[in-house]
Design a protein that fits this description.
The protein has helices spanning about 1-15, 20-25, 35-55, 65-75, 150-160, 175-200, 215, 230-240, 245-250, 250-260; strands spanning about 55-60, 95, 100-110, 115-120, 125, 130-135. By secondary structure, it is of the alpha/beta class. The chain has 2 domains: about 1-165, Glucose-regulated metallo-peptidase M90, N-terminal domain (Cyclin A, domain 1, Orthogonal Bundle); about 165-273, 3-Layer(aba) Sandwich (Collagenase (Catalytic Domain)), CATH 3.40.390.10. The strands form 2 sheets. The chain has a 4-stranded mixed beta sheet. Bound molecules: zinc ion.
């Protein structure tokens, strides 16, 4: 009896999202358009299982409703659509702030001097802990072109599966070597592109101001990708899913590595695969 009740409870909690909510939330994400009906069904089922296993909590007064939970689930589950939901087993909690949240930082420079600062973040993936998100940057209305903070943070979680945030997810030994070489080559190419572009920005334009956007927009990735290999992987993954053509044109080798790793190719439209 108790067993039967437990089974029913699991089934209900594990069930696919409500069809109407699913349709309206999914319609806000045009980057799902390449998925065929079977791919959309798979994503919907995966989202139901994801939501049954994760605890999504609001912070600073934000209360995530069913649509918000689903918007997060869709973006988190897209990278693992053809992988295993177990990739996200290392943590349960997702914390959502209404907007960017402040995180105190402490950095020690080469001279041993401690620098304290406060960063306003749109997302953070804590190793062994929760994913923290800003709803303003997560909702369909808040997404900037080619960017998804949810995909970014959950790809960090995939990167961290082997214990290192180094831009190299768990891969078989033979593939790992190739990935490392392609990652390094693509990263260095991007850093050189960024350096060249920044040399073209006139001194009268503050590179941190919106006035500099017209230069940075010429890059295939957000300049934040130049931070290190881990950020390069996370930012490139956003572009892979949201603007695949841009990444494939600029870095075809890294695009191929990502397509192999994620076991999907967003450039192959529904019905042509
Ligand atoms: Zn990051």
């Amino acid at each position: 009896m108790i067993g039967a009740m437990f089974q029913r409870l699991i089934r209900r909690r594990d069930s696919a999202p409500d069809p109407d909510t699913w349709r309206s939330v999914a319609a806000g994400f045009p980057f799902l358009d390449h998925l065929d009906p079977a791919g959309m069904d798979r994503l919907r089922t995966l989202c139901g299982r994801f939501l049954a296993r994760k605890q999504i909590s609001g912070a600073a007064g934000f209360v995530p409703d069913e649509a918000a939970r689903l918007a997060i689930a869709i973006q988190a589950c897209l990278p693992i659509l053809h992988l295993d939901l177990g990739a996200y087993d290392g943590f349960v909690e997702i914390v959502v702030y209404p907007a960017r949240f402040l995180v105190p930082r402490e950095q020690v420079d080469d001279a041993g001097v401690v620098h304290e600062s406060i960063d306003a973040l749109s997302g953070e993936a804590i190793d062994g802990g929760p994913v923290v998100l800003s709803w303003e940057d997560t909702s369909a209305e808040g997404l900037e072109t080619g960017m998804s903070v949810v995909i970014h943070e959950f790809v960090h979680k995939l990167d961290l599966l082997d214990g290192l945030a180094d831009g190299i997810p768990p891969l078989p030994r033979a593939r790992r070597k190739h990935w490392r070489a392609v990652l390094e080559g693509s990263y260095q190419w991007f850093v050189a592109e960024l350096d060249e572009l920044e040399s073209l920005i006139p001194d009268t334009v503050d590179p941190e101001s919106p006035a500099a956007d017209r230069w940075y927009r010429q890059l295939p990735l957000d300049p934040y990708a130049a931070t290190d290999h881990a950020e390069f992987f996370a930012v490139a993954a956003e572009t892979f899913f949201l603007e695949p053509g841009v990444l494939a044109d600029a870095m075809p080798e890294f695009y191929r590595e990502l397509a192999l790793f994620f076991r999907q190719d967003p450039l192959i439209a529904a019905g042509t695969s």
